[in-house]
Amino acid sequence: MLCWCLFALAVHSTAQTHAAAPAEPQFEVVSLKHVGNIKVGEPVLVGSIGHQEFREERPLNYRGVRLSGEAILNRILRYAYSPLLNPYYFESPFWMEQEVYQIEAIAPVGTTNETARAMLRTALADRLGLQCKLVDREKRICNLLRGSGEPKLIPSTEVDSNTVSYQRGVFRRKSATLADLASFLTFFTGTPVFDKTGITGSYQFDEDWSHATTGRPGDDPNVGFAVAKKLGLKLEAGKQMQKTLVVERASVEPTPN
């Protein structure tokens, strides 16, 4: 009899533990549609150059209680998982760079941006059967360091509300840190750039290298090195173990809405 009571108590305790486990955050309503490949039609030969038309994407945006956007799956994954990884590294099947999805979702009132991203992770697992894991990988990086002489930086006491650069290859800021500069240089190097200068404070920047860039991330590492040198700094390439999101499986077609 005593054994039976102990068994019943154990079962009851286990049930309470399971009941207390927090549920995965979910949208109240979510629509996920596969709209097709990023490439539209076949390449057209214009003179001696092939021209490929691409489907227009809408960056994911969460405003109020609504998450909306249309993008390739890898961009959707980045939106969902980037809060968990900084810098963001991922490994995924090639098709995720090609297939475009439209998402429209409604979250409960009061849902924060961070929680909305967690809800998106839940939706991707439910609708696409997405399975992924975090693993350690050795990745290429660059460190921003002091140069051999004095840094050529102009101190700033202003407040700069324009904290996002909208033009590729251009970094014009009334007030920014060396960490902000390192983030800008990441575009040229194609690898994360970490500020290791030890220089604190804010500075003015007026860097326009748009004439020297091809417009694609990682294609112009020499430009990044040139920007650093101009400011009396230097970039040093290296390697570092980084957490990486590895996609193990996912379906191309989502379950019906």
Task: Provide key terms for this protein.
257 residues; alpha+beta; 2 domains; four-stranded mixed beta sheet; 5 helices; globular
The structure class reads alpha+beta
Gyration radius (Cα, Å) is 24 Å
**What is the ordering of alpha helices and beta strands?**
HEEEEEHEEHEEEHEEHE
Instruction: Report the span from N to C terminus.
Output: 52 Å
Unreliable residue stretches = 1-19
Name the shape in a single word: globular
**Beta-strand segment tally:** 13
What is the strand content? Answer: 35-45%
How many domains, as an integer?
Answer: 2
Residues in helix, %:
25-40%
Describe the protein.
The chain has helices at 2-20, 73-81, 113-128, 178-189, 221-230, and strands at residues 29-37, 39-46, 49-54, 58-63, 66-72, 90-91, 99-106, 131-146, 154-155, 170-176, 193-195, 203-208, 233-249. The protein is an alpha+beta fold and 257 residues long. It has two domains: 25-129, no CATH class; 138-158 and 167-242, no CATH class. A four-stranded antiparallel β-sheet has the order 1-7-5-4. Strands 6-13-8-11 form a four-stranded mixed β-sheet. Strands 9-12-10 form a three-stranded antiparallel β-sheet, with helices on one face. Strand 4 and strand 5 (66-72) form a beta hairpin. Helix 2 (73-81) crosses helix 3 and helix 4 runs antiparallel to helix 5. The longest helix is centred in the first third of the chain and has 19 residues, at 2-20.
